[in-house]
Amino acid sequence: MINVCDIQVMKPLLAEHGFHFSKAKGQNFLIASWVPEQIALDSGVDENTGVLEIGPGIGPLTQQLCLRAGKVCAVELDNRLKPILAQTVGEFENLEILWDDVLKLDIPALVKEKFDGLRPAACANLPYYITSPILSALLEAECFDQVTVMVQKEVAQRIAAAPGTADYSAFTVFCQYYAEPELLFDVPAHCFLPQPKVTSAVITLRVRKERPWNVEDQNIFFRTVRASFAMRRKKLSNGLASGFPQLGKEGAAEVIAACGFDENVRGETLGIPEFAKLSNEIAKRLK
Ligand code: SAM
Q1: In this structure, which long-range contacts are made by residues 183-191, counting pairs with CB atoms below 8 Å and at least 24 apart in sequence?
Q2: Residues 235-247: tens digit of each pLDDT
Q3: In a mutational test of the pocket of ligand 1, which residue from 10, 11, 25, 63 has the highest number of ligand atoms less than 8 Å from its CB?
Q4: Cβ–ligand 1 contact at 59 (below 6 Å)
Q5: Would the CB of 141 count as within 6 Å of ligand 1?
Q6: Which site from 41, 152, 236, 260 is most exposed, i.e. has the minimal number of CB atoms within 10 Å?
Q7: Burial code of 191-219, b = ≥16 C-beta within 10 A, e = fewer?
Q8: Predicted confidence (pLDDT) per residue in 61-115, tens digit
Q9: Which residue has a Cα nearest atom 18 of ligand 1?
Q10: 182 φ, ψ (degrees, to nearest 5)
């Protein structure tokens, strides 16, 4: 197996194919072999797992996943990588590469078609310019057991944040609604070529089989969350009144009182059970 993380191997390989990194496609390739190995180990992938990898690049994580998984389906946008991947991962019979934009795929249909009888998981060193849309698509697909990704460290901290902290955001609630996150390890910028400006981190999200709260209307739940974070420094009633104009200020205050929350409560201190309560109360009034 070619060690694609070895810079003495990678540079001539890229040069042989006249490949230049595309900043626009978020191309920062791993040059520290412990990183893809540790990601694959922590992703919980085994021979009973079907893994969707996003952005194989020249294949360091793909190799590690192929060594462990029942099947790997890797989606890569950049066609220029075709001859390189043929050299670096061509030997794996459990690998299928799709040359496509992951954001244009019907992920549940793909998982059903490719991973029949396997435990579906997703694993990637994500292109950072589309971290949130990809993670949202993976979680909303509701078909993976586990999603393990490398992202910017600050995004990882945001995903795993607790209520009331500076990192807690609408995206935190979105991710934690679907899954339980665990921060795994940091990856310094010098582990990539070219070096990104930020530190990265690997996070795993174990998708919830059951959600321990009752949400009457998922659409209103996420609207409530967005409205609650939209005016961070203001009272929750202001945010809700602006996110749900039908309620008005008075209606928003009534909703908060009906939930038994303090009238001065701030959205960023509420956990998912409280947002569920709030959104159910709003749903009742919008009927
Ligand atoms: N996995 C490789 C590694 O760890 O060295 C490459 C990771 S690099 C951060 C991100 C990869 O995602 C690049 O190969 C890039 O071409 C690919 N990519 C960017 N946008 C994509 C998209 N919309 N769909 C699929 N792949 C994409």
Answers
A1: 183/156, 183/157, 184/38, 184/42, 184/148, 185/38, 186/153, 187/32, 187/35, 187/150, 190/32, 191/30, 191/31, 191/32, 191/35
A2: 899 999 999 999 9
A3: 25
A4: no
A5: no
A6: 260
A7: bbbeeeeeebbbbbbebeeeeeeebebee
A8: 999 999 999 999 999 999 999 999 999 999 999 999 999 999 999 999 999 999 9
A9: 55
A10: -140, 120
Displacement of CA 183 from its chain's centroid (Å): 12
Q: What are the structure tokens assigned to 127, written together?
A: 């292109």
- Cβ–ligand 1 contact at 76 (below 6 Å): yes
Angstrom distance (rounded) from CA 271 to CA 162: 8
Residues shown for the chain: 287
- For residue 56, the ligand 1 atom closest to its alpha carbon is 1
Contact 128, 23 (CB under 8 A): no
Q: Ligand 1 centre from 268 Cα, in Å?
A: 33
